[in-house]
Automatic annotation (TrEMBL):
Protein name: DUF1178 family protein
Native source species: Daeguia caeni
InterPro entries found in the cross-reference section: DUF1178 (IPR009562)
Length: 141
């Protein structure tokens, strides 16, 4: 995932996460990226310096958290570990496999993988319950 600094034609600045440059371009072209402040679909990427992830930076981030936040982060880490340990990784076939399971065409089991924004909306519209796994600081290494 790539974090982009974005701005709309009304001067509002915000951030967005995308799989890659092409993913942003596709969504922006289809007017799926909108400003959270004014809902303008005229959104552009802002110039930004690359974020280099270091263990020191992660330590500083965690050090700035309250005890409740650190505990919540650890709970999220444990949930993510359990899902990855006990579910099947299906990669970019997540949407297809979720549908097969939902409609009884494949064995019911826990799965995880990647899905496009459009696939996520389709699955939810079909009544298929899904939940994104959070991206944790250590996932970027």
């Amino acid at each position: 995932m790539i974090r982009f600094s974005l701005h709309c034609d009304n001067g509002h600045e915000f951030e967005g996460w995308f799989r890659d440059n092409a993913d942003f371009d596709r969504q922006a072209e289809r007017k799926l990226v909108t400003c959270p402040a004014c809902n303008s679909p005229d959104v552009q990427k802002s110039l930004m310096a690359p974020a280099v992830s270091t263990s020191r930076r992660k330590e500083q981030l965690i050090a700035g958290m309250s005890e409740e936040q650190r505990q919540a982060l650890e709970m999220i880490r444990e949930l993510t570990r359990q899902v990855r340990k006990n579910a099947d990784y299906v990669g970019d076939q997540f949407a297809n496999e979720a549908r097969k399971i939902h409609y009884g065409e494949a064995k019911a089991r826990g799965i995880y993988g990647e899905a496009t924004h459009e696939d996520v909306h389709s699955l939810l519209e079909e009544g298929i319950d899904i939940l994104p796994l959070p991206t944790l600081p250590e996932d970027n290494n």
